[in-house]
Design goal:
By secondary structure, the protein is of the alpha/beta class. The protein contains 10 helices and 6 strands. The chain is elongated and about 50 Å long.
Length: 226
């Protein structure tokens, strides 16, 4: 469990006023969480981030103008603009595809929770603390749906070699093949060989490359103590 020794500055983004105010009130019951802005669309969110430099953004997944996956798009932009800002995406959809897209740039400082967690304020507050400290959180229901269709065995990582575990851990940090190679003192060719092997062992043989990488990360997160 992440612990905070300072007050964290948060921004809440949701186009529904009642939800936005509800999330804000829930978070502000915790003395270490301070909501510095609450906004209703992506443009206002990015402007507020630029102004307030928050530790964490808590955003709805669908907002104006397109009502598609603006929250995830904002997370991707923040990855480049303010990489130290944690992002908690709240969604009513227990859809692994959204979580996969959120983690395309790495799992560090990212969380995907179902909106029902707002009624479980301790979980929401802890997710904010976790991403602020560099961790990640994926809603258990989303992981359950994902691994039900992906796990070849009760423990999906049981057949991985120690080196494959190391490679997967590096991938979970968002590193490219070159970054993994540098960290583990391997050639990129060796890294690709290990990745192909662990994909096969995890049953990830037919998905697009980026989805295989992120699905492997989700499997890693679901079985590794954070």
């Amino acid at each position: 469990m992440a612990e905070s020794s300072r007050t964290l500055r948060l921004i809440v983004a949701d186009d529904v006023l009642l939800v936005r105010e509800g999330v804000q009130r829930v978070l502000e019951t915790y003395p270490d969480l301070d909501v510095v802005a609450a906004v209703g669309d992506v443009a206002a969110l990015l402007e507020a981030v630029s102004e307030h430099r928050p530790d964490v953004v808590i955003t709805d997944i669908r907002m104006p103008p397109g009502f598609s996956d603006e929250g995830i798009q904002a997370a991707a932009q923040l990855h480049d603009l303010t990489p130290d800002t944690g992002v908690v995406v709240l969604s009513q959809y227990a859809e692994p595809g959204y979580a996969l897209k959120l983690l395309e740039h790495g799992s560090k400082r990212r969380a995907y929770l179902l909106k029902e967690r707002v009624s479980e304020p301790d979980q929401l507050a802890e997710a904010a603390r976790e991403v602020a400290s560099g961790g990640s959180v994926i809603d258990p229901r989303v992981v359950e749906i994902l691994v039900t269709g992906s796990r070849p065995a009760p423990d999906p990582l049981a057949d991985l070699t120690p080196r494959e575990h190391q490679v997967l851990e590096q991938i979970a940090q968002g590193k490219s093949n070159a970054g993994v190679a540098a960290a583990l003192f391997l050639t990129e060719r060796a890294v690709q060989k290990h990745i192909n092997s662990l994909f096969a062992k995890l049953g990830l043989t037919v998905e697009a490359e980026v989805h295989r990488r992120v699905t492997a990360v989700l499997l890693y997160l679901s079985t590794t103590p954070r």
